[in-house]
Each structure stands twice: as structure tokens, then as C-alpha cells.
């Protein structure tokens, strides 16, 4: 009897969840379809009419996806706004791709950046998600960015504000928190965390994450925390730096390694090797 009651209650609770929970697979499929539509030319693509038909089909699929989180009239309106902004998002993404090409000596072409750079893919998903977030849609953008997170290891909250010509190199392990503000021409390497000093729920509505001004480079493993922390324009933050305070424009912040020659005396403290 207890098992039957539990299964009944579970089934009813899942019905309530289903009423407000979008189709996760459909959300992930939409993200990849938009990426494909914007950047990957299909052999089946023909004249402009066929291309317009694919565009309208994509918009219709998105309206259906929005129906899982809002009513029909609002879904159509939100889809229309989103696709109206798509040209602006596309232009911003072209600048992001060019920034990666300009920054990374290993990058040979825009085509390589678009098809082979996880940082660019994550930036695409972020910009799509951020547009929805600005429209007041909350759950779908979180699904989108978590999908990109699962594929690339890069976690960017859709609420974060990121300027143009944003470049991510390698990318694995990057975390960009909800209230982060990033300026233009900023470059992040793998393992960078732009996080909060305090994760108390009571601070949910406050600015908890740092501001990174224009033309800043942040190298691998750096951690920058706090809503009042500002990294000034043109600064360079070295690898594995830990910052909880602001630095002025054109600063260079780094750890200086100490070099010692081994002898027969034991080391005064334990050495931890990181591979």
C-alpha cells in the first residue's frame, strides 16, 4: 500500500512539473539547429526560397518550444522578438570569431574557429541565451547554457553581460557568474573563475560577481571574486592569480615563482606538484 501511494504521489507531482518544464531534448536540438543555420552550410541548401523556408521552420520550432514555458500568444511574441534580434546576435558573433582568430596563433581561419573551437560554440549559445534572458524568459536560457557547459566544460550564466569581440582560448573549466560584467576585447584562458565572494541566498538580487573592463586578458587558472571587484581596462591577470579586490587600468598582476637549487637539506615545507 505504501508503495502504491508513493507511486501515485510521484506521478501527480511529475504532472505538475511537466506543465512548466520544457522539453530538454528539444531545447538542445534547437540550439544546435540555430548554430547550424547561422554558420554551417548544408549541401542541401539551395536558393533563397529554401533558405527562407528553413528560417521559418526554425522560428516555428522555437515558438513550439516556448509553448512549454508560456502561453500561445506570448510564445509567438517572444519568438518574433528573438528572431528580430538574430541579425544583431550574428554580427556580434562574427566579431567574436574574428577576435579568436586574431588572438590565437594556432587559429588559421574563421572556418576553423567556427567548427573546431569550443569557446566559440559556448559564446554562440551564451549570446542566444542572453537575448532570451533580456526578454524575461528564464528557464530555457538556463537549459541552453547548461547544454553548452556539458559539451565544452565552459559555464557562462545567461544573465552575465559580455561585450563584443569576446575570445575564449581552450576554455575548459571557465566559470562566468550571473552578475558578471565583461567589456569589449576581453580574452579568457582555461580555468578562469569570475565568481562571488559570498553565496548566501539573501544576496541573490545583488551584484555578486566582478566587472572586467575592456581589453583585459586573464590567463589560465585565475580566480576573480566579488561584486565590487573591478579589473581596470587593459590589465593582464596572470595564471593562478587569486583576486578579491580591484586593480587600476593597465595593471599586470602575477605570481612570481621562486627558484631554488636542490641540496642535501630537506625542504622546509611540503611541495605539491600539479600535473
Report on the structure:
α4 runs antiparallel to α6. The chain is built from seven helices and 14 strands. The strands form three sheets. The protein has a five-stranded parallel sheet. It has a five-stranded parallel sheet with strand order 3-6-9-12-14. Mean pLDDT is 90; it is low at 271-275. It is of the alpha/beta class and 275 residues long. Helices cover 44% and strands 11% of the residues. It folds into two domains: 22-153, serine acetyltransferase, domain 1 (Orthogonal Bundle); 173-255, UDP N-Acetylglucosamine Acyltransferase, domain 1. It is globular and about 70 Å long. 31% of the residues are buried.
Largest sheet: 5 strands, parallel
First and last CA, distance:
55 Å
Question: Poorly predicted ranges (pLDDT <50, ≥5 residues)?
Answer: 271-275
- CATH architecture field of the largest domain: Orthogonal Bundle
Q: Determine the CATH topology of the largest domain.
A: serine acetyltransferase, domain 1
Looking across the biggest beta sheet, what order are the strands in? 1-4-7-10-13
Radius of gyration: 22 Å
By CATH reckoning, the class of the largest domain would read Mainly Alpha
Q: What is the number of helical segments per DSSP (H or I, 4+ residues)?
A: 7
CATH superfamily of the largest domain: serine acetyltransferase, domain 1
Amino acid at each position: 500500500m505504501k508503495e502504491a501511494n508513493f507511486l501515485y504521489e510521484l506521478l501527480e507531482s511529475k504532472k505538475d512539473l511537466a506543465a512548466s518544464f520544457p522539453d530538454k531534448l528539444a531545447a538542445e536540438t534547437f540550439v544546435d539547429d540555430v548554430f547550424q543555420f547561422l554558420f554551417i552550410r548544408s549541401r542541401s541548401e539551395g536558393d533563397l526560397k529554401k533558405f527562407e523556408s528553413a528560417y521559418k521552420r526554425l522560428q516555428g520550432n522555437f515558438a513550439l518550444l516556448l509553448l512549454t514555458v508560456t502561453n500561445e500568444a506570448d510564445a509567438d511574441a517572444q519568438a518574433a522578438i528573438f528572431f528580430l534580434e538574430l541579425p544583431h546576435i550574428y554580427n556580434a558573433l562574427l566579431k567574436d570569431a574574428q577576435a579568436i582568430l586574431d588572438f590565437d596563433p594556432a587559429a588559421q581561419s574563421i572556418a576553423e574557429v567556427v567548427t573546431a573551437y569550443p569557446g566559440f560554440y559556448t559564446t554562440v549559445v551564451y549570446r542566444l541565451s542572453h537575448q532570451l534572458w533580456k526578454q524575461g524568459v528564464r528557464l530555457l536560457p538556463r537549459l541552453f547554457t547548461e547544454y553548452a557547459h556539458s559539451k565544452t566544460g565552459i559555464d557562462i550564466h545567461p544573465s552575465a553581460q559580455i561585450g563584443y569581440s569576446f575570445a575564449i582560448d581552450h576554455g575548459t573549466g571557465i566559470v562566468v557568474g550571473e552578475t558578471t560584467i565583461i567589456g569589449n576585447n576581453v580574452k579568457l584562458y582555461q580555468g578562469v573563475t569570475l565568481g562571488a565572494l559570498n553565496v548566501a541566498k539573501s544576496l541573490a538580487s545583488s551584484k555578486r560577481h566582478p566587472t572586467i573592463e575592456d581589453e583585459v586578458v586573464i590567463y589560465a587558472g585565475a580566480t576573480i571574486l566579488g561584486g565590487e571587484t573591478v579589473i581596470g581596462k587593459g590589465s593582464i591577470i596572470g595564471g593562478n592569480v587569486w583576486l578579491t579586490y580591484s586593480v587600476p587600468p593597465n595593471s599586470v598582476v602575477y605570481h612570481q615563482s621562486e627558484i631554488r637549487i636542490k641540496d642535501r637539506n630537506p625542504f622546509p615545507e611540503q611541495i605539491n606538484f600539479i600535473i
